[in-house]
Amino acid sequence: TGESRPPPEPVSTWNIAHRGASAYAPESTLPAFEWGARMGSDFIELDVQMTRDGHLVALHDKQVDRTTDGRGPIHRYTLSQLKKLDAAAWFGQKHPRRWKSSFRGATVPTLEEVFQRLGNRIGYCLEIKKSSAGPQLERKLLQLLKQHRLVETSESQRVLIQSFDSDSLRRIHRKAPDLPLIQLIHFKNIGSLSHRRLKRTKEYADGIGLSYRRINRKRIHRAHRHGLRILAYTVNRKPVMRRLVRWKVDGICTNYPDRLHQVLQQT
Ligand code: G3P
Ligand code: CA
């Protein structure tokens, strides 16, 4: 299927703000996403999770402990319980010099809030975690994307869905074949990235996402020969960004979208 649909060449390496501009603002909150947009990102990256009462929210960890003042797994919280948690204060404690009063009161945002706030100012790179993946979450996500007119072909470039879970991506591909999907490949499972593996990936995905430590020229060339984009996560140092841009990687996920923006302007 995918074989007949090579991905269009991006004009330049995509700048993808990892959990928003997460070096500068509390990760996965509206301020972090706003900063990502202001710092010249093409996409904001976020991890999708579901509350006990079925709302989709942006949160990286399975537990709320690290990035909020709450305790326990996200799936035990209803949205109204979750909304009572503070998702910014930890950042002020950890990075007092980066604290801004505008962060105060930030909560775990629903995807709905993110789409409403940022609209089509920016693209969305949405990750479905293996642990939270499941047909129910996928169904709700597709429904929400449709409501916000983010799955229409002309606009499909505005949304990427990525996951380490190939079953989840295959299910999404069956339901929304035009939605660009990125198969994330774990640092430890890189194996040989054989032609056979890439051919199978191309059946449902438009690209692969690898740790930058696993990316070299040969792998970029190999992915491109299969019509797959190749995205690098998570790159925070300019020399590495420069090298990857020179090698024509298709996208870079970073906590410092401003640094990547500068690198891209210089090349
Ligand atoms: O872009 C891939 C990257 O987001 C995967 O790592 O742990 O930050 O979700 P993680
Ligand atoms: Ca992620």
UniProtKB/TrEMBL annotation:
Originating organism: Paludifilum halophilum
PANTHER family reported in the protein's UniProt record: GLYCEROPHOSPHODIESTER PHOSPHODIESTERASE, GLYCEROPHOSPHORYL DIESTER PHOSPHODIESTERASE
Domain GP-PDE: 13-264
GO MF annotation terms: phosphoric diester hydrolase activity
Keyword Transmembrane found: yes
Pfam families listed in its UniProt record: GDPD (PF03009)
Name recorded for this polypeptide: GP-PDE domain-containing protein
GO biological process, one term: lipid metabolic process
Lineage: superkingdom: Bacteria
Statement: the UniProt record of this protein carries the keyword Membrane: yes
InterPro entries assigned: GP_PDE_dom (IPR030395), PLC-like_Pdiesterase_TIM-brl (IPR017946)
Keywords assigned by UniProt, alphabetized: Membrane, Transmembrane, Transmembrane helix
